[in-house]
Design goal:
This protein is mainly alpha-helical. Helix content is 47%, strand content 9%. The longest helix has 19 residues, at 165-183.
């Protein structure tokens, strides 16, 4: 199953947002300052962003613990309950747009909405599309023992296990290779 460009973009934003939180394996909070929020907004290519404030920062930070449990729930029903509660926090006004060279797509938040409202609605609707498509298992946490980052598996065969194959995946493959060599006496 493949999702539309805007859904995949919102899911990527959600993963990036959740992964800014400190967790059991990383005590670093990478969304503590207004500058970090501005960088996040720029990296995730939000369009038509007004000047961000400390209030925006606080509201966006408050969203993270609402979204994070969706990546670890083991039932569609509990995911749906969480997602419905998240979406209800925002104001949805769907509209078609084709900005910044992207084809026509739907934005679910109203023009001029706060950054937190935009993230709430856009990411919440993207999650709702994942659940309604029967694809909840694509939402997971990295399987590396020293990483707890969220990830969305958009691979055709649902084979993504690590948040980043170049770091977590490669590190585990190298460790397994070294163990095999050690076991064989090389």
């Amino acid at each position: 199953m493949t999702f539309s460009h805007d859904t995949e973009q919102a899911l990527g934003t959600l993963v990036r947002l959740v992964n800014t939180m400190p967790g059991p394996n990383s005590q670093v909070d990478s969304l503590e300052t207004l500058e970090e929020l501005e960088k996040f907004v720029q990296e995730r290519e939000f369009s038509a962003v007004d000047t961000l404030t400390e209030k925006d920062l606080a509201e966006v930070r408050d969203l993270r613990p609402l979204f994070a449990p969706v990546f670890t729930t083991d039932s569609d029903a509990s995911a749906a309950t969480m997602i419905n509660a998240i979406i209800a926090r925002g104001t949805s006004t769907p509209r078609l747009t084709n900005h910044d060279g992207h084809p026509w797509h739907i934005h679910y938040s109203r023009a001029g909405a706060s950054m937190a409202c935009r993230i709430t609605v856009e990411c919440g609707i993207a999650l709702a599309q994942v659940i309604s498509a029967g694809e909840r298992e694509r939402l997971r946490r990295c399987e590396a023992p020293d990483c707890d980052d969220a990830l969305i598996d958009l691979s055709r065969n649902r084979s993504k296990r690590y948040c980043d194959a170049r770091t977590c995946g490669n590190r585990l493959h190298v460790a397994a290779y070294r163990e095999r060599r050690k076991a064989s006496g090389e």
